[in-house]
Design brief:
Helix 1 runs parallel beside helix 4. By secondary structure, this protein is of the alpha/beta class. The strands form two sheets. Strands 4-3-2-5-6-10-9 form a seven-stranded mixed sheet, sandwiched between helices. A three-stranded antiparallel sheet has the order 1-7-8. It is globular, with a radius of gyration of 18 Å. Helix 4 links the parallel strand 3 and strand 4.
């Protein structure tokens, strides 16, 4: 259960938020909202499907981690795993995944879904992405579908931790909200098509309680910032994928919708690799 008990709706504002405050807010928010999130989006995410974002780009099709046939036996770390749907898909391909999340309640959903597994076991770890509890070089691959990075004040710290636990030549693929969306209202309809804020304003979006304590924090990085963060952490950027909205996808998910998705990108996927020894 969240440490926050809200007597009223939180106040939405823009202000600075430290890494520690952001981490506390994320843990509390996801513990409180995991049930609603899985109830609302569970059908789209599936029990053992690896989807990169609201557009519905599937790893089975995109193969951003590599061909599915080559995943067998690979040690894979999923960061911000939620209910570990992506990790279960990886296990079904014969990979050896570990699903890490800050939220205890999200990982309880992972345990709930474990009874539906058709692949191998998935390790579950509750930890902060900025302090990974693993030895150096113990994973072949890492992935994160909208996990951790949008919610941390120091993304380079997280990226360096991921690089540390990857073997030489390892690959990390992560998706985040496309940075251009920061300039537009978070609305799926026509109101979400007009610029309302500066793309270059990096002040975090914060929801806070009556005492001024952050209960939700999201940090903005421009596209250039994300590239520089990747490089500063010691990765090579191999590809930057901006999924187009497919015709089959008619759902709305927050500010994502067919209307907006056909006009402006909603997700950015960064494909990164470490240098070989």
């Amino acid at each position: 259960m969240s440490q926050y008990v809200m007597d009223s709706e939180p106040e939405a504002t823009r202000r600075d938020a430290s890494d520690a405050e952001s981490s506390r807010a994320s843990r509390g928010w996801w513990d409180s909202n995991a049930d609603d999130y899985q109830r609302e989006h569970g059908a789209f995410l599936g029990d053992d499907r690896f989807v990169w974002g609201p557009e519905g780009l599937d790893e089975a099709e995109a193969a951003l981690l590599g061909p599915a046939a080559e995943l067998r036996g690979r040690r894979v770390l999923e960061i911000g795993a939620g209910a570990a749907q992506c990790s279960r898909w990886l296990a079904a391909q014969g990979a050896l995944p570990v699903a890490l999340d800050l939220s205890h309640r999200q990982l309880q959903h992972a345990l709930r879904l474990a009874g539906t597994d058709t692949g191998g076991p998935v390790g579950l770890v509750e930890a902060d992405a900025g302090a990974l509890p693993f030895r150096d070089g113990c994973f072949d691959l890492a992935c994160s579908a909208y996990g951790a990075l949008p919610f941390v004040a120091d993304p380079v710290r997280v990226l360096r931790e991921v690089r540390r636990v990857l073997r030489p030549g390892g690959r990390f693929v992560f998706s985040v909200t496309h940075p251009i969306r920061w300039a537009f209202p978070d609305e799926p309809g026509p109101a979400g098509l007009s610029v309302a804020a500066s793309y270059f304003d990096r002040t975090p979006y914060v929801e806070q309680d009556e005492a001024g304590r952050a209960v939700y924090v999201e940090h903005h990085r421009t596209l250039g910032d994300r590239v520089r963060d990747v490089v500063a952490a010691g990765f090579r950027l191999v590809d930057l994928v901006e999924p187009e909205w497919p015709e089959w996808n008619t759902q709305e998910w927050g500010g994502w919708s067919p209307l907006r998705g056909h006009l402006i990108p909603g997700t950015a996927i960064f494909v990164c690799e470490t240098d070989r020894a």
